[in-house]
Amino acid sequence: MKKSGPQASKSPSQLIDARIRELSDWRGKMLSRLRTLVKEADPEVVEEWKWRGVPVWSHGGMICTGETYKSVVKMTFAKGAQLKDPAGLFNSSLEGNTRRAIDFHEGEEIDEEALRTLVRAAVTLNQSR
Fold first, then answer.
1. For residues 87 and 9, what is the distance between their CA atoms, to the nearest angstrom?
2. Checking DSSP bridges between strand 62-68 and strand 46-50, what pairing results, if any?
3. N or C: which end of the chain has fewer CB within 10 A?
């Protein structure tokens, strides 16, 4: 599907910036912080904008998405079931054979180092294929 209108000329990074501004509440702040942590973990990450408005971070394949809902910001790891999660960050989408997700709620603290480690592990998994 082709982009049309004002979004057609914007980069994925600009679209993610706009989404963060448009949220203008705790979800925007959370998405912004998660984005920063992904970039810290992998400075070579590629930002994408897929499925009519979902931020996606990739490196050698999809790492994770940053979806926003009314009561949660969900970070879904495309190959999460194959990743070790010693800190127990995954708390959603646990039943499948492929994906795993982390639901962040308002006011929750992020285990930043564990999240950066998980992102780096996802990049390593992508590069091993």
1. 40
2. unpaired
3. N
SS3 per-residue string spanning the chain: CCCCHHHHHCCHHHHHHHHHHHHCCHHHHHHHHHHHHHHHHCCCCEEEEECCCEEEEECCCEEEEEEECCCCEEEEECCHHHCCCCCCCCCECCCCCCCEEEEECCCCCCCHHHHHHHHHHHHHHHHCC
pLDDT for res 127? 95
CA-wise closest residue to 104 among 80, 77, 69: 69
- Given the structure tokens 């992102």, which residue do they identify? 119
Could you give phi then psi for residue 4, rounded to 5 degrees? Answer: -140, 165
Q: Report the predicted TM-score, pTM, of the whole model to 2 decimal places.
A: 0.90
Amino acid at 32: S
Q: Supply the pLDDT for residue 96.
A: 87
Work out the average pLDDT over 99-119: 97
pLDDT surpasses 80 at 6:
no
Position 23 pLDDT exceeds 90: yes
> CA 76 to CA 40: how far, in whole Å?
18
